[in-house]
Design goal:
288 residues; alpha/beta
């Protein structure tokens, strides 16, 4: 990562901050952004303490769902560093918790704006830079909502499923420009989002999900470092040619994917697809 320039959104705490640390340790310079200026300054200081001579950290307060602020963020990064190599779309929220007919509609829409529109806006802003230099890496955070229904957390689930299909689509659009676009499922992390679920209680998020959250809190959940390592891998040249995939930090053998690049590129593994009866060994409803 020596000499590489990355943008990490939502980088003032949790997985975003851990990812920023991993990029610094790998030799990159960074733009970090978040909405909370105080936490962002604290994050900058933590990163500065481990940075080596020549590495730089640019902290910028920005709301990724605001098109003007996104344009300013990407423009400031390009002006300071002269290029952008990697975008990590980490910023996200759970949104309102509860039955769809009961939750605040504006909060529901706001979660879509941050999780989905914010990620798309960031991609739109960096793509001209990537295309001009003939390369680039986009790593998108997904989550459990992409592959499983999440009752009582519908805006989160909808946004996470939608953003994975956007990743698959964008990957095809920019493949000839040598731009790799992937999503990751980081695993069950003990972050502020988990604390939100526990604070909301079983009535808002459902008994099963609430009990699972409590157990996760007690056991520690998946390590932040594992997901951050996958993000750095997908931002590195070692992952060249891996694109349009949703990769699990915890379950998938991502370290060895470069050795299986040919198979991976010709397959629909690690993508969202419709399941038909024959996929489950059923004999009805199949093509003749």
């Amino acid at each position: 990562m020596d000499g590489k320039i990355a943008i990490v959104t939502g980088a003032n705490q949790g997985l975003g901050l851990e990812t920023a640390k991993k990029f610094i340790e790998a030799g990159a310079s960074l733009t970090i952004c978040a909405r909370n200026a105080q936490l962002l300054t604290k994050a900058r200081d933590q990163l500065g303490a481990i940075a080596r001579p020549g590495q730089q950290i640019l902290p910028l307060v920005a709301d990724v769902s605001n098109a003007d602020e996104v344009t300013a963020l990407v423009g400031a990064t390009a002006e300071k560093f002269g290029k952008i190599d990697i975008l990590v779309n980490n910023a996200g929220v759970y949104g309102p918790k509860g039955a769809i007919e009961d939750v605040n509609w504006l909060e529901w829409v706001r979660a879509i704006e941050i999780n989905l529109y914010g990620s798309v806006l960031m991609c739109r802003a960096v793509l001209p830079h990537f295309k001009a230099q003939g390369r680039g890496k986009i790593v998108q955070l997904s989550g459990g909502g992409a592959t499983n229904p999440l009752p009582m957390l519908s805006s989160y689930a909808v946004s996470k499923a939608a953003i994975v299909r956007f990743v698959e689509t964008l990957a095809e659009e920019v493949k000839s420009d040598r731009i790799d676009v992937n999503a990751i499922a980081p695993g069950a992390l003990n972050t502020r989002l988990l604390d939100e679920v526990i604070a909301a209680g079983a009535e808002k998020v459902g008994q099963a999900f609430y009990e699972r959250a409590l157990k996760q809190k007690q056991t520690g959940g998946a390590p932040l470092a594992t997901a951050a390592d996958l993000i750095v891998f997908l931002g590195s040249e070692r992952s060249n040619g891996i694109t349009g995939k949703l990769i699990s930090a915890v379950w998938d053998p991502w370290h060895s994917l470069p050795e299986r690049l040919g198979e991976l590129q010709e397959s629909d593994v690690y993508t969202l697809r419709r399941i038909v009866p024959k996929d489950r060994g059923m004999q009805w409803g199949n093509d003749p």
